[in-house]
Each structure stands twice: as structure tokens, then as C-alpha cells.
Design a protein that fits this description.
The structure is a homotetramer of 398-residue chains. The first copy, chain A, has 13 helices and 13 strands. With 398 residues, chain A is an alpha/beta fold.
């Protein structure tokens, strides 16, 4: 099976060349002083990326590890938790919370919409027993976004701890950990950072550590334990177990790429690629999945699959015929997604995505204005004001 | 901080060049058909490496994840488990087992020795309530080996399920999963396979799956769940969560390297490097840590640190002055370890290890015959019969 | 300065990933037995690629080295040479021939045309004093092709030695050295082979060697000497000087890629990408540079620059605004070229080329139907019969 | 054929990891603005390395190209040239000079010695007709050095132009182009710079350009022409032909490595490795090839092969049995050479070289004190004053 020509998926997405080069570096012993230095240095860079003074915890597994660890760490049987649900990741967090014994409260909307912060505020006011709030910032399967800038402070001011899944937002959509008063932010590199999966990037507030320490259900002596890392590594000099040395090379490299481009420039680039992609999709006569532009996330564009076709079929056809890998709906609905994250959020990639999807749908019998779609996406890139669509200064100066 | 010139640690060790090249390959979406094909293909190759018809489970975290998952999967409160202890990893398994509610039985020996299989047999006969046996094949911190070829069948014939930690043996020391009747073997790539850490390579017997399925304490819907992988991926087509795409590239590459060299050739090479290293250490006037040559493992050579010095001090000095990274005792005692695993188990590397350690100890005041040590290790490499000490045919033909 | 997002130039073009991986391999001593073996093995593969039993000579510099060396080797003052001129490379060969003292005969056509083989035959019949014929197979700056299949045998049957510049054709356009009776074919890797510049791939017939040996003007003891290589390396065991070890890694890798895809499949893929590109260009309302489709080469599509604009301006704009690197006319006229060679001759790349050029021209004031152009190019890729447009089986199976 | 475990040859030697990573970067079109910028930037860095204000010319072929081009550029029939001969490269220059029509004067010494600057001065005074002086700084095949610091000014003050071959000295042995008043310095990357072969690094003074311009025999419109590069590229914006893009990536990377370590630190490191190697060789009871320590070069250690053995035999045995690639005498005598250049000039590599050679010779019947040799070399590395033997700060901070 040949590799794809281009990956415009919902992540893992393509990695920056600098990341691939870093992952080819010789592996070192984890107690090698150069590796220890790299680990500490990477933590500092991640803090810079997540705009926080809180502890940085780099858990050694895909972001699902960090999400589970965070929920287990803060929840014990009987804890009242408010979980916001606008898609499959939000829904999944609810299942976990119940498993862990939480008193589960949920605010749920259709999977093409987002929970209104005003509803959250009202709910918190009406339920002062809520101790923890969980929210997915960017619901990747639906291509929608929650307004965490509003929700975070609401929770904090009421003494409610927050766990925010910002896996697919960090680097491409604004995430301000401290300004937004997030207790535990859970991020990852395989989306807008253009890095490898396999590591969770987390921030943890003192309040979260405190709750965890006093929680008898919080994992200890376990791969799932945040406390092990806090006690042995963050406050000590010992790794709880062997870290993923190779992925750590990739993590540092991708954070370097984003910080060297500039976090704001990276976010602006993702935003413009998203706008180009949405404009192209609509000009092609296709329908966006999210209810309105206001709730769209800038990392992926979700498109409703025309009647009579399925997401898996469309995705497979684009991959086979055109070598372009896009994503299906992953349970959120009959939709496909064009990702524009990391190096995929650059220049003509949204045009390629619109073209491959449009042509693929037409091959399968749908009515699509392919040329119009591509031309509309491309027009975005040509706009003087849209120069941020291409990454600048990232390679050549080194 | 400069990188080391050479890593002769107890692992992670240096990766083969083929592995580093593979890790530089572009990252793909995990549902890309090329990645799915790669994942399935890699499972088959791992089965070939572990000599088994059992299911292969590639858990997406360092081997500690697999060990914890296996123990949690087979144990529930009240399960009687016999744990063999000859070092810190065996000891650690006991702590876990108690945490998980097991009735813990232990056969423990000094950390420079191995448990005698005859003692195991006697114990199993005297304790028919034992349901599970846990054993570390190669106790890396001590440089010692358990005779799993003998112990596996003893357990199996008594209906006792086995969890064998063969993290640092596979690829360098014989591991015959099916012949030895191991239920769950837990291996990893960052030792004798010369691959990346970050993935656990596991084999699971039908009996183990059956026990796990009927175990209400076995993790489900969790990063720690083997059953999730069994149901969703091994017997299905869905990943429980995003796998570590980049590390998977490295895993396939390192298994390819070993299979293309030939598993037996790889094992013979590790054995000869180990003998060269031990000969060099003794000729230098230093003392091996293991009680006798019979209990030594071929992956690392453990050497007692002379009086008045500490392992951390010696390790740090060799790294700083000579750029050679060796390992300390990791809690097993005042010892240092020269690793000879993967590409470190090749040609003159044991000579370099003996030289750096010998010279480092002399710098610190010990009495060492450095030249004699290096010459003795080198003599091994020159022996006609010792040709297997260098890896053949691995690169150039591609 | 940032690197381009995509290179669709006339070459050097992007290299295959396998090539880049090979170029990252450790450099060896040139007399290392593994390198010597690699060099000999690569020669055999190049012979397979060029369909010849003649000697393969890998000169250690860009193809211009091989062209100059060949001309100097066969020509001495007074030699009558017929040089076919349809563009800047053909013209340049004439200047050299005069410098080297040849009696120069030329058949020249406009730089958007090719010399008719019938004219060649007539000329050779009328000028029996011609000893050598020189022809550029694919005139890259013009995007045109000579019919060497016809011309080669005409020359051979009259005892005329041929030097054929097939730098930009090999791997993407049929080149049959022995069937076409070519005496010296001069090829390179940085075009349709998707490899590095820096090495000339040559084939040399016995008749060519014989003439060279008896030519007192043929370079000897020089970087320009083919005879040095013949005597010391091809018929001996000594390199005349240090070969370019790193580029040789890349050369073997790119030839491997093409042979593993299949030479015919590679050629079919280039042909289809060229047809897609030309269809797109015309649908966009732009004009091809070559006089007719019959004379176009499959490696690059040359497009006339609309009035009032210049090739350098258009090229610069596409690069700056869209990150797409195309080529200008390099002296052949006011034209730009979209390359589709090696990995650039794949899947949607011609669509990207048409889009970037079309949009760029529109930005600069030209009248272009961008969407129509892209849609037309894309239609080609979607055609069932056009499946050869994407490279198959090249990556994943390794 | 397996690749070597370690290359301690006389060059090409192993490349720094940074170089290998750079060579894996995607190839760009040569007129891509990022490549043009890289080319100009690299020239500036090479000027910094060669301590010169003169023009930098990066000829696109192995250093032999630059040497031939320089000699052809300055010499015409009848030019009186003084050529210093202390080995095969000096001797070879003489053959060329005669070929090019020079009136050849030579000062020749045995191939284990160097020409005394006092003899040069006397000769120049006695032969005022001398217009050009050619000298090899480091005669790699013999492991000897000429005192160019003394010779350069002698020539300059008498109006004699100098061509200095510093291929194996630059980066490992002091070369001060402007202070030493060198007109044309010819360097390369595959020796002490730890880079790729395939590019000549040259400096050219105004006086040299002037002579070349007025020399009707100087190559023009040729791969051998320095003037083409001067007129089209250095003073223009056009490449005479396609440069070796991939090797240029490696060149910039290796120069970056050396400049970031610090040129003086790099030279000190090479010097100490050379002293360690020579000490080891003597302690092993072997004999250095150079007449005395004063004439040794720091890039390679040349060792006389004991009676009854040949250099090719010893080299082959070390490579086959121990995977260590050293070099033979290349026509300079029955000697072998351990290279310590670039990454081979680091830490324990000289110890490995002494060990492999010593053990290899012993295998073949010679009387060698292997342990003493290795211990003596190692003692050097352990010396407090010898800390410069390892490269510092080169990797980890990036």
C-alpha cells in the first residue's frame, strides 16, 4: 500500500520537517544529562506555548492518557461534575466520569453546535455542589469550538476546578491557560503543532494538585498517575518510568517551530486556512456541518456528506483515487473533515483539500462545482491581507 | 549540554540507523490504509520475533504500561500470585500485586542472584492455590537472568498463568513464548532490539484473555485496558485511541533489522559481546556484580563499584570526561552497568565500555589494569570463533 | 527566507522520500568495501534503467560535466559534427563544439519546435563527412522533445557516433540506449528520477571508447576525463579521485524507486501528469509554448507568458505569494514552466501548478479561468484510465 | 556487505549528525530564493572559516576539481612554477603543471618529510622567474605538514602567486588565508569538517583573478572554469550550471558545526586526538611513518606497516574482523593511517583506532603491545588538560 501523497486529516496530521529531522536523532539513555536537560527545557517551552505559570506535565502517552489521568485524579465516588457535551469526545468524558463514580451533570447540545456559556453560568449557579467542570475546547469530530475564555473564569470564580481538552486547538486556536483560569489543560502535538502523537502536554494548577493529593481514588504507582510524576520528577529528579525519548525529540522540535514562527502568527495562519477552506466548500455547493460559522473550529472543516453517500466511502475514495487522506465523522455524524493543522495549514493545501473532496464527491455522483470551490479557496490565499496563510521564516534561516 | 559520544547504557540504548531513518518518515493519519497495513504487518513480525501463535498486542506506552496492564488484567482481590524477586523490577511487581489486592507469595533471593527453578517447582506444589506466576526474565538493574525455559512449563502444567517481563531479553537472549508456555510476555524495543521506547510488545494467550474477560477488576475503557485493544482492534477494525504513529515506524524498523540479521545471529552476537565485556572487566581487576557467570544476562554487564566510590559518581565521571554513557545500579546495589544491546552489542563497543569504565575508576582513585582489560575484551572479538560479535549483512545490501 | 511549500520546477525537482533518507546515511570511506560494492551495484541498476549493455560511467559532477566530457572526448580539431538545435541546450553544445575545434554543422529550428528526423536523414546523406551527431532529447527550457528513436539509428547506420543529452527525459520519457543505438547517453537524477544533482549518469559504447582513445584531444588526467574512469575504475579497481559518496547514496535510492515502481509505470505516470497539466493550462485560457502537442516533452509544460508580463516576474510572484516554485524560460523565450518530474509528477501536483500559475497571472492582471483550469487538470486524475497518474506500491511495502 | 561500524579513514570520514540531517532536507530548485540565500550565506561562513576577505568560490565537484581548475587558471605554457613535493599529492600537482605547459621547478623530499621553508626561500631568491608556487599543506597520504605560515609570505613578498592545497587541514589544523597571504586556497569538507565530499571550498585573491583573466589558457565556458563562476555568479546572479543542491546543504551544516564549536576549539581537539593516537601507536611498539613528530599533521596518524605485511592486507583485516575502516598508504609507502578528523576526532575514537590496528597486526603475526597502546591513548583523554579532546556544546542546545 502506497503512502498518501498528502494528509489533510483531523490528526495525526503531517509533521513539520524539523520534527521529522529531530525524530531521526540518536536515542539517548533517559538519565543522560543531555536528555534530562532537554526534558526540562521542553517543559519550559510548553509553558510558553500554553501561556501558563502552572506546572507542566508531559505524560508519556497519547492525549487520551492525560485526559483519563486528569479525570481520575480529580474525581472520586460522589464528586459532582458538570460535563459539557457537544460531540463524541465530550460524550466520552461523561462515560468515564460515571465509571469513576462521579455525580454526573451534563449540558448537551446537538453535535453540530456548542454549549452556550450563559447556560453554563446558569447551571453552575443553580448547582453549587459542582466541584469539577470538564469541557472539550475544540470538538475535532464535529469541527466545533467551545468558548473556554468565557467558561473558565465562570468556573474558577465559583471554586470549580476545570479540565479542558485542548488537544486540537493548541497552536492553531488561542488557548490562554492562566488568563482563562484553567486548572488542567490537556494538549497534544499531533494536531496544530505538527508533531508526533504519543505524548500528552498538560498544565496543572496548584489547586488541582491539592485536590489530587487529598483524593484517595487518584492513581498512584501507576502509568495513569499524575502524582507519581509530580513527586518523583517535577519535585524530584527521578522518572517514574522510562520516558519516550524519541517522541520527546519530536515534541521539542514542534514547539520550537511554533514558537519560532510566533504563536500568534501560527494561530492567524490556521484561521485563514480555515476560512479559505470553508469558502471553498461553500462555493463548491457543499454544506458545512457546523450549525453556523460562529461555532466552527479553525483546525478542521467539517462538511456534511451529500445524501446517499457515507463518510467512510468518500474518505476511502479520495484516498485511493487522489492520494489525499481526509477524515470521516468518527461517530459524530455523516460528515467528512478536511484538516488544516500544522504543515497542512499552509498555502495551497486547503485548495487541494477542496479539490480532492469535490472531485471525489462528483466521481460518486454528487453535484459539485469543483472549479468554483477551488478558485474560491485560492482567492483567499491571494488576498493581500491573507499573507498569514503561509508560514514565514520557518526554515530558510537555519 | 553535548550529546554523548556513545551510549552503552542499560536502555534506552542507541537505535539502529534503520530505526532512526524510519522515525524520520512522514507521520500519517492512524486510519490511513497504509498505516493500518503497517500496524498489522508489524504485529506479524513481532509474533515471529517472540516465536508465538498467540495474539500480539502493541500497547502504546513504555513497557511499564504493559506490565501494569497485564497484572491488573489477571489479578483481582484475593488472587493468589507467586512473584519471583531477584531485583528491583521483580520487587516492584510485588508492590503492584498487593495494590491490586492479590494474595502475594514471593520467592526472593539476593539481588545478585536468581531464583532456582527447583524452588519454584517445590513452592507451586506446596501452594496449589497459586493462580498466577510473575517473573522477570532479565533483571536489568542486576544484570541477572531467570530460567524461564524451566519455570514456564512448570507453571503451565499446574494451570498457573504466567506474566513474564522479557523487556531486556528479547532479541538478545532466547525467548520462546510458545515453547516455554508463557501466557503474557511483555517486551520492549529500547533494549536488545535497538528501537524506540514508547511501545510495549506483548503476547497474550487465549487462557489469559479468558481470565481477563471474566475478571471484573480488569481495566476497561482505559488506557490500561488490554481488553479494549482485543475487542476493538485485534478482533475489530478500530483503534481504542490514537496510536503512536512515529514510534510504530521505529518498531517495525527494529524488528526488521533483527529478523533480517536472523534472530539466532542477533542472540549469538549479544552473548559474545557479553562474554567479551565480562572477560575485560575481570582482566581489569574489577569484580562482576552477579554471584556467578551462570546467572548473568547477556544484555548488560553489572560491575561492583570499588569501595569508597558510588555508582552515580562513576557514571557521571565516565559521561563527562569520556562522553560514554553507562548506567548505575538503579536501586539494585552499588554497581554500574555496561550495556551491550542492539547496536551497542557490536564489535569494539565492549572494549570501549571497559576502557571508559576502567579509566574512569582509575581517575577516581581505584586500582584498575585498564590495558589488560581492554586487551582481554578485544581478544574475544579477534577470535575466529567470535565472528558473530559483529552484525553482518545488515546495512549494505539495501 | 522560508523554503518553498512545493517545488514544481524544471529541475532540480523534489526528491523522493527514499532518496532523502538515503542521503542521511553515514558517509563512508570511498575504498570501504561496502561503498565499492554500492558503486558497482548502482552502475548495474543504471544500466537497467537506460536499457543498455554498454559501460556505465558515473561522472562525479552535474550533467554538464558529462556533456562537456563527452564532447571533448569525441571531438578534435577538424571533426565534422552535426548538432541539432531547438533550444538553449542544443545551442550551447554548438558553442562548445566550436571551442573544441569542430567543423560545426547545425540544423536549427525555432525554440518552440523540434528538428524533423527526415531533415536529419537528408543532411547526413548530403554530408558523409559528419562523424559525430549531438542532440538534446528533451529540451527542458522549451518543453520540447526530439525523436531520438528515429535519429539514433540513422546516425548509427552511417557510422556517425551520437551524443544524446537525455538529462530530463530518463525515467519520465522512454530512453532506449541500445535499441536506439546511442553511443553516449548523458543522463541525470535531479529531473524525472527524483534524485540529487551532482552526478552524471552516462552510457558509453565501445565505438565511443575507441574513438576517444585515439583522440589526442580527449581529456586525460583531468576531472573532465572519461578515459581516466575507464582505465582506472571501469577496467580497474581505483577511483581517479574521491567520488561524491553522499550523492551516490541518493543516486542508488532514486534508481531503486523507479525500478521498483517499474520503468514503464513511471513513464506512464509522467505522461499522464503532462497531459493533465496541458489540459489544465488550456482550459484556463493560457497558451502552450511548444508549437504543437506532438513536440511537447512529458517532463515540463512550457506556457507562453501573456503580453505585458515577464517570466521572472511571474515565477517570483508564484513563489512569494503561494510558496510554489515554478521555472522561467532560461533564455528560451518569455515562458514559464511547470515541472512534473519525479515526486512532482504525482496525483494532484499538476492541479496545484495550474492553480498557482493561474492565480498568479490573474493577480498580475492577466485574464485566466482559474477554476476551469484546475478542474480540467483534476478531471484527468479522476479518469479511470488515468490511474497511472499516481505512483503505486512505492512506499508502504517497505 | 555490511557497513563499517566506525570509519577512521583518511577521508571521506564520518559526517557530523547535523550534516546527515541537513542532507535529508528536501531538494530545492537552484533558483529558488531560499537556495540562493543559502548559497550566499554559506560563502560567508566559509570565508569566516578560512579567515579571509577574498572571494569564496564553491566549485561543484570534489577538491581535485578545484586544484585542477586553479592550476589551469594560473598557468599557461611557459609559466615558471615552483612545486613543493613531499608526497603523492604534491607529486601529482607537478604532473599536471607539466601537462599545462609550465616550466616546472620542484623541491622534493622523502615522503615522510616536509620541505624546509628555508630551502624554499633560497630557491625563490635564486629563481626570480618563478611566478607561481604550489604546495600541499597537509599531505594526507603521508600524514605530514608543510609550514605554509612561513612559505606563504615568502612567496607573496616576491610577487609569486600561491596555490595551497589545504583539503585535509581546514578545520583541524590552522589555516589563515589572509595572514599567510595565500592567493588560492583549496579546501574540502570531507576531512576535518566532517562534511560531504563533492564540493571544493576555494578562496581567490584579486591578484589571482587578474592573472586568470589575462591568461588565454585559463578555462572558460567549462566545468573547469573559475572565471565562469566569477563572472556569472560571484559578480552576477546566474549559476554557470546546476549546483549540487544536496551537498550544499551538507556544506553549510558542517561549517555551522565547526563555527559553533569554535574554530580554535576544533583545531585543539584535532591536535589532542592526534597526540593521543601517536602516543598510543608508540606505546604499542609500532613506528610512526613521518620522520619526526615535528612534521606530523593532526588529521591522520601514519604508521609504518611491520615487515612482511602490506598496507592493503592490514586495512582489509581491520575492516573485516573489527568493522573499523582505516586507510592504506595510497602510494606514499607501506603505511596505514588512522584518521582523526571531524567526528572521528573525538573522545575515545583514537583508542579504538589503536586497538583495532594493534589487534589486527597481532592477528597477522606482528608483535604489538595492544593493551599498552590503548591505555596510553586513553591516558591522553583522561588528562585534565586534555578536555579539548571532546567536542563541547555542539548538539544539545539545539
Amino acid at each position: 500500500m502506497r503512502d498518501p501523497d498528502i494528509t489533510l486529516s483531523a490528526g495525526p496530521t503531517m509533521a513539520y520537517p524539523e520534527v521529522l529531522a529531530a525524530q531521526a536523532k540518536q536515542i539517548t539513555y533517559h538519565y543522560d544529562p543531555a536528555f534530562i536537560e532537554r526534558f526540562r527545557r521542553t517543559e519550559q517551552k510548553v509553558a510558553e506555548l500554553l501561556l501558563t505559570q502552572n506546572d507542566i506535565l508531559l505524560m508519556q502517552g497519547e492525549a487520551v492518557l492525560g485526559l483519563e489521568a486528569a479525570a481520575r485524579g480529580l474525581v472520586q465516588p460522589g464528586t459532582s461534575v458538570l460535563n459539557l457535551v457537544s460531540g463524541v469526545f465530550g460524550k466520552g468524558m461523561g462515560y468515564w466520569l460515571k465509571d469513576f463514580g462521579a455525580e454526573l451533570h451534563e449540558l448537551e447540545v446537538a453535535y453540530n453546535d456548542s454549549v452556550d456559556p450563559a447556560d453554563v453560568e446558569r447551571y453552575l449557579d443553580e448547582h453549587p455542589e459542582i466541584e469539577v467542570l470538564t469541557v472539550v475546547h475544540s470538538e475535532t469530530p464535529s469541527g466545533t469550538l467551545h468558548d473556554v475564555a468565557a467558561i473558565g473564569p465562570m468556573a474558577h470564580s465559583r471554586g470549580v476546578l476545570t479540565i479542558v481538552d485542548c488537544v486540537s486547538s493548541v497552536g492553531g486556536i488561542e488557548v490562554r491557560t492562566d488568563d482563562w483560569q484553567i486548572d488542567i489543560a490537556v494538549a497534544a502535538a499531533q494536531k496544530c503543532l505538527g508533531g508526533p502523537p504519543g505524548i500528552t502536554l498538560m498544565t496543572v494548577s496548584d489547586a488541582a494538585w491539592e485536590r489530587m493529593r487529598s483524593n484517595p481514588s487518584a492513581p498512584r504507582a501507576s502509568f495513569l498517575s499524575m502524582l507519581d510524576w509530580k513527586e518523583q520528577w517535577i519535585d524530584g529528579e527521578k522518572f517514574p518510568f522510562t520516558p519516550s525519548v524519541c517522541d520527546m525529540h519530536g515534541i521539542e522540535a514542534c514547539v520550537d517551530v511554533v514558537l519560532s514562527e510566533g504563536l500568534e502568527a501560527s494561530i492567524a495562519r490556521h484561521d485563514l486556512c480555515a476560512r479559505a477552506c470553508r469558502a471553498g466548500v461553500r462555493a463548491a455547493g457543499l454544506e458545512l456541518w457546523p450549525r453556523s460559522e460562529e461555532v466552527t473550529a479553525a483546525c478542521v472543516t467539517a462538511i456534511a456528506v451529500p445524501n446517499g453517500l457515507t463518510d467512510v466511502q468518500v474518505r476511502g475514495h479520495c484516498r485511493e483515487r487522489y492520494g489525499v487522506m481526509i477524515s470521516g465523522g468518527q461517530g459524530a455524524g455523516n460528515l467528512v473533515r478536511i484538516g488544516h493543522m500544522g504543515p497542512a495549514a499552509d498555502s495551497l493545501n486547503p485548495v487541494v483539500g477542496v479539490g480532492a473532496l469535490g472531485r471525489g464527491l462528483k466521481d460518486l455522483g454528487a453535484d459539485v462545482r469543483i472549479g468554483d470551490g477551488m478558485e474560491a479557496a485560492l482567492a483567499f490565499a491571494s488576498d493581500e491581507g491573507a499573507r498569514a496563510m503561509t508560514r514565514r521564516g520557518a526554515h530558510g534561516s537555519r
